[in-house]
Amino acid sequence: MKLCSWNVRGCNDPLMLQVVADFIRQCHFDILGILETRIKEKNKNKVVTAKFKSYQVLSNCNSHNNGRIWILWNPATVTVSSLETQAQFVHCTVLHHATGVLFSATFVYAFNDALARESLWSALRTISSTVREWVVLGDFNVVHDVAEKVSNSSHNLNDILAFNACILHCALDDLQSSGCEYTWSNKQDGNARVWCKLDRVLVNAYWLDQFSSSSATFLPAGISDHSPAVIDVFLEKRRKARFIFLNCWVSDPSYQTRVQEAWGSQVQGTPMFRLFSKLRNVRFSLQSMHRASYSGIQGRLQLAKDELEACQMRSH
């Protein structure tokens, strides 16, 4: 399954609208968040019919009259249900038809003003307590770290701290990614040029546990000033059985060595991705030990019982 978020800097221009339509057709997205459409509610149906007629559309025009966020999805592959819309985000659930997998997605287009973004951070904090598998993607209009901005101008540390406080509270982390390091540029020349990472894909621990192989790619911006963020989610038709730790494993002679080796394995990626990769490695190692030493335990018990009874019969 493929998701995408892209700040297109306006779709009123016929050229930009055609670029977006071609982009969707070429990449076969299941869900696409188009940010900064600048299309009024009264013109939405005309645009959808002309360029996106095979997709269903959800927008936040009721929360902001400038068509800031559109969500397009392929009804043949997914069902998207809106849960909450505000001027800076659309929060929804996504049901994948082929696998029955359900997750939450929040498409974000944050305001430029730091004070106005406070309502977004507050809303995300509230949402975080209501979801399991959750992806938050879009244009946050603020960097996560001073290293994410290349410019001759100074950084506003208070803006960064407010964003980071929200991420920490929501237990979100960047999904492992590749492609463009800086996702926005003012496209000016010389010393006036500014590069920033304003667009990102954030996920929670439940997401990493369920979709451990998912990743994001930030593509070149093209005629926009923002990079599209493309997320590949690899789904399985059957979810793996829940992992249960058995106390008897602790007494196994190889237990401590297995755990230490699995936890000490080298993993690249974000801190949260490394944590879950190490936990997964420990799980796989313990499951391997279980298969080698403890599988078929009922059969072994019955065999031991039969041997005991045979010995007792011979003793009489």
From TrEMBL:
Which residues are in the Endonuclease/exonuclease/phosphatase domain?
4-226
Renumbered to this chain, the signal peptide range is none
For this UniProt entry, the molecular function terms from Gene Ontology, in alphabetical order, are:
catalytic activity
InterPro entries assigned to the protein according to its UniProt record, in alphabetical order? Endo/exonu/phosph_ase_sf, Endo/exonuclease/phosphatase
What Gene3D superfamilies does this protein's entry cite? Endonuclease/exonuclease/phosphatase
Instruction: Tell me the domain of life.
Output: Eukaryota
Residue stretches in coiled coil: none
Q: Under which name does UniProt file this protein?
A: Endonuclease/exonuclease/phosphatase domain-containing protein
